[in-house]
Amino acid sequence: MYNWLMTYNWQQSDWPHFKYDRSGIEDTLFSFAERAGRVGGLLKGFSENIRTVTIIGIMVAEALKTSQIEGEYLSRIDVISSIQINMGLVPERQQVRDKRAQGAAELMLDIRESYGQKLTKTKLFSWHNMIMKGSRATKVGAWRTHEDPMQIVSGAYGKEKIHFEAPPSERIPREMKSFISWFNDTGRGGKKKITNPVIRSAIAHLYFETIHPFEDGNGRIGRALSDKALLQGFEGSIFLSLSKTIEKNKKDYYDALKQAQRSNEITSWLAYFSAVALQAQIEAEQEIDFTLRKTKLFDRYETTLNGRQLKVIRRMLAEGAKGFTGGMSAKKYISLTKTSKATATRDLQDLVKKGIFISMGAGRSTSYEIDL
Predict the structure, then answer these.
(1) I need a labelling partner for 282 at 20 to 30 A (CA). Which of 22, 93, 147, 245 fits?
(2) Helix, strand, or coil here: 153?
(3) Distance (Å, whole) CA 339 – CA 364
(4) CB under 8 Å, gap of 24 or more: what pairs does 53-58 form?
């Protein structure tokens, strides 16, 4: 049976007519738009190669972190390879075996490539099929239909705490029809257009998460909808990973969502979401700076490094600015390049001499980080 003791937003008479006061977040919204415009302008001035590398980096971060929020950890290398294959940058024969990474990559590309299209039930089902690749879920690409309550709970068995209870499954087709109409009507050219993309993105996420129409994967689809709303609002020239920022403080995210699902007055939710969006935009600028530094490093040293060194540097940079957790070691170098200990030591010392690596520790505990 459904728990009717707690009144949720969808049970209230004004659902889904959200009310809010944006006066307290005007500065945040302005800063976001200013930074988004600056990042878009910067990327337009870069070479096609740098733009592509930057966009891939942002999509990879979003794919990894939106899954990680839900407790699913994907291989960064598999996600990168999947995106590159789907973009036609590497041969298809280099297929990635991890179906989850394939699906996550497909979703990231589809969001960016189809952002201008109207939202449809078919599109949502397609996204759900993508993110559920490799999953054992029995109901994929369809609304949930089970009679049991759809609840967000925590705690040990017998001592569960209910954080939220979504509308019954029988209401899902009607609720989602209304949601899809709302999403399309509030976009560019819509009869109920919401002028600020961040506000529309925030409401879209909350609205969808409240309905919780799928048996699994609702969080990832909800964040995909936030991305679509932002891309539509900025006509495709927005570059950030909301999930990367959200994942750093998941508790704040769930707390804000839980509070917002108690009422259709959502001012506090907009304050939370706009702050996350601004931080995500700041981090996107840092990602672009990282990409530029990588490019300059390879432009300067690519002809003076051997194949082993280049392979290791590329592999390390695929993990971020500092490379592997714990740094590079002679043992890791040997494993990656299949070379001898003597050669590995000579290569690593050469990288330190050239100023590319910084050595940490001494003796067997020596490790190396990239100095960008």
Answers:
(1) 22
(2) strand
(3) 18
(4) 53/291, 53/294, 53/295, 54/239, 54/287, 54/288, 54/291, 55/112, 55/239, 56/80, 56/83, 56/84, 56/87, 57/287, 57/290, 57/291, 58/239, 58/240, 58/241, 58/284, 58/287
Q: Do strands 357-360 and 367-370 pair parallel, antiparallel, or not at all (unpaired)?
A: antiparallel
| pLDDT one-digit tens code per residue, 79-122 | 999 999 999 998 766 678 899 999 999 999 999 999 999 999 99
Question: What domains are defined for the chain?
Answer: 9-290 (1.10.3290.10), 306-370 (1.10.10.10)
| Cα 154 from Cα 157, distance rounded (Å) | 9
Other beta carbons within 10 angstroms of residue 166's beta carbon come to 23
Q: What is the pLDDT of residue 192?
A: 97
Give burial (CB, 10 Å; 0-12/13-18/19+) of 119: buried
Tokens of 195: 């002028």
Of the given ranges (23-32, 88-97, 103-112, 125-134), which has the lowest mean pLDDT?
88-97
Question: 2 pLDDT exceeds 50?
Answer: no
240 Cβ contact list (under 8 Å, min separation 6): 36, 39, 58, 230, 277, 280, 281, 283, 284
Task: Reduce the DSSP state of residue 165 to 3 states and report it.
Answer: strand
> Which regions of the chain does DSSP assign to beta strands (E)?
151-154, 161-165, 357-360, 367-370
Q: Is the peptide bond before 91 cis (omega within 30 degrees of 0)?
A: no
Predicted structure pTM score: 0.86
